[in-house]
Amino acid sequence: MGPHPAVAAIRLAVRRVLHDILNDHQTSGAHSGRQAPGERERTGRTAERPPSPLVLVACSGGADSMALASALAFEAPRLGIRAGGVTVDHGLQPGSGLRADEVALRLRGLGLGPVDRVAVTVGREGGPEAAARDARYAALDAAAERHGATAVLLGHTRDDQAETVLLGLARGSGIRSLSGMAAVSGAGGRYRRPFLHLDRQTARKACMVQSLPVWDDPHNADPAYTRSRLRHEGLPALEKALGKGVVEALARTAQLSRDDADALDAWAGQAEAAVRDAAGLLECAKLYALPPAVRRRILRRAAIEAGAPAGSLFARHIEEVDRLITGWRGQGAINLPGRVVAQRQGGRLVIRQG
């Protein structure tokens, strides 16, 4: 008799991602370890095979990440992959340090190693949710670098994806926000999200049938947090009004939006060289001829290259710069985040540090 369907589903999702990681690792190792013609004859040595990759799981102790950790512990040894874990103590609740210790102990009990328990200081920039997220990813990046990990697995589910799409829609920040979370992200594809096609209930069921203890973060039910209100009030209201299937539809929207956004980004990358003059300045007439979605991507990229922080550069900023192209009435320079200034000069758009 095979495993429970929920357990089988999470293991299959993790197995697929581990196969991708292993293939990427072997391909990069083959390139880096390739010998020049005659090298083997001269040295008498064959190229060394790269060591087995290390994959870490980011685990808070909640149902999603505990299910992910258990599946990684089961699947990794069967593929010759080393598996470890990281739990981050944000220090935002009483007893958080003790809970982090417990999670680390559970990860070791699953047979994972190395296991890191990392305490972080959460700042205030961007609000509490964004600040905690920034601190968490910085800690995960540091752990991956410290241990030489090939990848870090994250337990975001289809439900998380639906919430992310709705948050992007509420901000009115364009198709890239509607594309939600990528299955692969981060420098060199470090972060992998195996559960984006699985619902939250599947992960919780998998923990229950395996008798895995889970911790329900009270912040996830705190109405002070936007995502919590969306999870417990917004999405249920949508399902009541529109019927079941809203979460699946939003997740599907994310994938379709990501495909469109990737295509537009590629188009903008190819078009950018054609709209610059010999000195590298953007020519307004050529920018005007481009579709707005492509033109605005070029403007955003130019602003970031000039020093504007990507996280502080909003759609309204790019719209103001775009009016220097499409609604030129002799207006003055546009101030952008990072002390970057955009202005029109002699038919050219100049974006630089002020």
Automatic annotation (TrEMBL):
Transmembrane segments: none annotated. It comes from the Bacteria. InterPro entries: Rossmann-like_a/b/a_fold, TilS/TtcA_N, tRNA_Ile_lys_synt, tRNA_Ile_lys_synt_N, tRNA_Ile_lys_synt_subst-bd. Keywords: ATP-binding, Cytoplasm, Ligase, Nucleotide-binding, tRNA processing. Residues 55-233 form the tRNA(Ile)-lysidine/2-thiocytidine synthase N-terminal domain. The N-terminal region contains the highly conserved SGGXDS motif, predicted to be a P-loop motif involved in ATP binding. This is tRNA(Ile)-lysidine synthase. It comes from Streptomyces dangxiongensis.
